[in-house]
Every structure is written in structure tokens, then in C-alpha cells.
Amino acid sequence: MSTTDELVQANAPDHVLEKIRRGGPQLDQATLRPIVDQAQRIAEGIRRDRHRDTWDFNRAIARQRDTVLAERDEVMNGDHATVEVTRRIPQEIDRLASASSPSTVASLARDVALWCLDEQWCDHLALLTEIRDGIHLQALAGVNPRDEFHRIALREFHGFFSLDPPMSRGCAGAA
């Protein structure tokens, strides 16, 4: 590897790059090896930090996803969706029930509930993405960005199922 390699140029500290510029082609292998090794260690550290940050940010989302998937499974396999949709739009369900079978009504109620749950989850993910995109600014306020992201993610998810699950906030009138 040479000192003109992108890895060295992008990751070596400024004082080392200045040493390379001053020494030029006269630098021997004994001098070059530690420079390249240091640049490699810096690049690996940066990559590890990015990986750790990505993992940390996704940890809260993964837990929330597990909770939503459990609710989704309950909607798929239980009768909660039919009860909830009937509670919200009783006249429409009565008309549908008089024109079709109970299994058709249950299937449609399940589809509506799943659609609403999926829409709410997509909205939640969009919000978390927006928060994550700007969370680094919290460091300027002396706050740990990862901790703040988790705090916000938990706060936002806290009410996820509170508005008559499994129907979402946006589906309250859509059903």
C-alpha cells in the first residue's frame, strides 16, 4: 500500500499527511508501515463506530417491531379485529353482515385492522427516521444522541396501541 492510497489520505491525521508530503518518495518502508497501519486502525474504528451507532439506533426499533408483529399476529388469528371494527362502524358492518357470510365480515374486518396497524407502523417508522436524521444535533446540547433517540422512540411508541387497538390514529374514521 502506498501513502497516496485513499485509505491513508482519508484517515491519516493531518500531521502524518504533512510528514508524507515533506518526505515524499524518500520515505522508507520502516516509516511507511506505521503510517499505513495507523490509517487502517482509524478507518476500522470509524467503521466500528458507525456499525455500533446503527445497531444502537435499530435496537429500540427492533423491540417495537416485535411488539407490533405480536399485535399483528393477534389480529390475524383472533376475533379482536371484528369486534373493534364493529364497534367503530356498526351500521356498515350490519349491512355487510346481512349481505354476506360472517367469515367474509371477519375477513374484511381483519383486512381493515391490519391495514390500519400497518399504516400506523409506517407513520411511526417515518417519524423515527426523521428523529434519527437530526439526533446528532443533541450532542451540541451535551446530550448523548443514542440515549435521547431511545428516550424519544419509547415516548412516541408509548401511545401506539392506546387509541383503541388495533386501529390506528389515522384509521379512526377510515374504517
TrEMBL record:
Any one annotated GO CC term: membrane
Q: Which GO biological process categories is it annotated with?
A: protein import
Q: Which residues form the SecA Wing/Scaffold domain?
A: 100-159
User: In which domain of life is the source organism classified?
Assistant: Bacteria
Give one Pfam family: SecA_SW
Q: Which InterPro entries does its entry note? A: SecA_Wing/Scaffold (IPR011116), SecA_Wing/Scaffold_sf (IPR036266)
Its recorded name reads: SecA Wing/Scaffold domain-containing protein
